Give the backbone structure.
Amino acid sequence: MYFYLIILGDKDWVEILNPVATDRQDYLEEVRDRLENTDAEVIAVSAGFDYHINDWGGLLRTEDYRLFGTQVRQTAERNGGGCYGLLEGGYNHNVLGKNVLAFLSGMAGDSEK
């Protein structure tokens, strides 16, 4: 995330959210609150999956990534814009694919799988 801050951090037309919560519920609320209160036309997600409970971050669950994808899509739709994600991290290959699929499913509007 530091790389993005150097490039975009001083631009008044860019909002950067890098949650710092150490508690799962606080993390979920921080993301939800920022998305509810943005009017961004384009939402770009630097999609790191290393905060999963079975990865080094040890905080989030697979269903949380689906929720984030859903929230991003809904926010983009509400704002009349678009959204995309770039894979950044996730180091436990036993759960990485499931987490990526959950996020993409949420972004696609498929919250059932």
In short: The beta strands are 42-48, 82-89. The first strand starts at residue 42 and ends at 48. The chain has one domain: 27-108. The mean pLDDT is 89.
